[in-house]
Amino acid sequence: MTAEQPASAPAATHVVARPHVLYVGTPAYLIGSVNADGSANLAAASSHWALGDMLCLGIEADGQTALNMAERPDITVNFPSPALWPALVRLSRLTGRDPVPAAKAQRYAFARDKFAAAHLTPQSSDRVAAPRVQECLLQFEAVVRRMTPGLDGGYFMVEAEVVRVHADPAIVDGDEIDPRLWHPLVYAFRHFFDRGDEVGWLPSSRLAPYPPIID
């Protein structure tokens, strides 16, 4: 290449996409909370991440769950297995708010007993007032520590401290959750998936058979 010849542009490898949602693939969860009259509320959600003992949950601002969290911080975060995906669909058009907020009136209907509506079973917790979901193999009891309004006012970023973890013995190895035995329900672009095959692990894994081999 001479000084007069410009470098050729790299070949295009991607196209511009315009997805209507940005859920690239995270485990879905069911969040239990307590209504003002002491009854249980249950909602399906997917936006979350964890750091240490803290969870950050993305929760719609106009739902009963956000109202309950602001007034009664005890919650449970329950992770369903793939076979439970119909329960999330049943909950997806239900709200515990009565009357239904105007913004939800076209898509949502009020349900007083959302556990029954989802065909799920409430289970007492050890350290919080909110119930767990018995059918979920992995359950977190947690306490809301801070709720930060989102930029558009339509959601809260909820920071919750996990105070106890419950797991079905079938997915536990010692004190650890065995990632080879645990299959969360993965939510990606409004579709549900089972987890795929294991492809590797970090050196910090306590259950890996040997350190990862990286070329």
Automatic annotation (TrEMBL):
Keywords: Flavoprotein
Cofactor(s) this protein requires: FMN
Lineage: Bacteria, Bacillati, Actinomycetota, Actinomycetes, Micrococcales
Family annotation (PANTHER family): FLAVOREDOXIN, FLAVOREDOXIN-RELATED-RELATED
Transmembrane intervals: none
Protein family membership: Belongs to the flavoredoxin family.
Domain Flavin reductase like: 24-193
The keyword Protease appears for this protein: no
Presence of the UniProt keyword Flavoprotein in the record: yes
Organism per entry: Microbacterium elymi
InterPro entries linked: Flavin_Rdtase-like_dom, Flavoredoxin, Split_barrel_FMN-bd
Protein's name according to its UniProt entry: Flavin reductase family protein
Domain of life: Bacteria
